[in-house]
Amino acid sequence: MLRQGIRQAHPPAQQPKRYSSLSLSKGQEQSIRSHWDDEQEQWYFSVIDVVAVLTDSANPRDYWYKMKIRVKGEEGFEPSTVCRQLKMKSPDGKQRLTDCADTEGVLRIIQSIPSPKAEPFKQWLAQVGAERIEETRASTSSATSCYLLRSVSTPIKLGNYLSIWWLSLSKPRNLPC
């Protein structure tokens, strides 16, 4: 099973605020800047750093700029809508505004990166999505079966009298749900 994805090194309560680690490749920590937002209670990750890790682009900022234009035209998705500007320490040591996205936004952006490095991650996302759909389908099927077994849709009263069906429910029955 492919075990890749976004993860935090420690829960926010155990970790100094404003720092987290993000793993986008199997067993390899990458340098991706992050920020903990106390109000939203979630992590934000530098999109430029994610792009740099997954594309090996010489200029990740330029790649991100061109990608926003391409994705908007091809997919009808505007990546800027899942981003917000946060000040983060840049490689030159200064605090600069950087496009950042929460976990959900980063996952959506990664889906739009056409890179061999992004493919295993996209496959993992597809697998997790398929598993989630199957779980939902199974629970829906189970709930429907339970509903039908209990005959919930059968009327409880017939006129002013309780139906024989309702009285039969007082007897213990072994239902699978």
Residue windows where pLDDT falls under 50 for at least 5 positions: 1-12, 14-21, 154-167
Fraction in beta strands? 15-25%
User: What is the H/E string?
Assistant: EEEEHHEEHHEEH
> How many separate helices?
5
Inertia-based shape: elongated
Q: How many runs of DSSP E, i.e. beta strands?
A: 8
Structural class: alpha+beta
Q: How large is the radius of gyration? A: 25 Å
- Biggest sheet, strands in spatial order? 3-4-6-5
The major sheet is characterized as:
4 strands, antiparallel
The amount of helix comes to 25-40%
Cα end-to-end separation: 32 Å
Could you tell me the mean pLDDT?
A: 75
Summarize the structure.
The protein is an alpha+beta fold.
Question: Your description of this structure?
Answer:
The chain has 177 residues and is an alpha+beta fold. The protein has a domain at 12-117. The chain is built from five helices and eight strands; from the N terminus they run ββββααββααββα. The chain has helices spanning 47-55, 60-75, 103-111, 119-149, 164-168; strands at 22-25, 28-30, 34-37, 42-46, 83-89, 95-102, 157-158, 161-162. The strands form three sheets. Strands 3-4-6-5 form a four-stranded antiparallel beta sheet. A two-stranded antiparallel ribbon has the order 1-2. β7 and β8 form a beta hairpin. α1 (47-55) crosses α2 (60-75). Residues 1-12, 14-21 and 154-167 have low confidence and may be disordered.
Using brief descriptors, characterize the structure shown.
177 residues, alpha+beta, two-stranded antiparallel ribbon, disordered N terminus
SSE diagram, text form:
Layout (H helix, E strand, L loop, with lengths): L21 E4 L2 E3 L3 E4 L4 E5 H9 L4 H16 L7 E7 L5 E8 H9 L7 H31 L7 E2 L2 E2 L1 H5 L9
Helix pairs in contact: 1-2
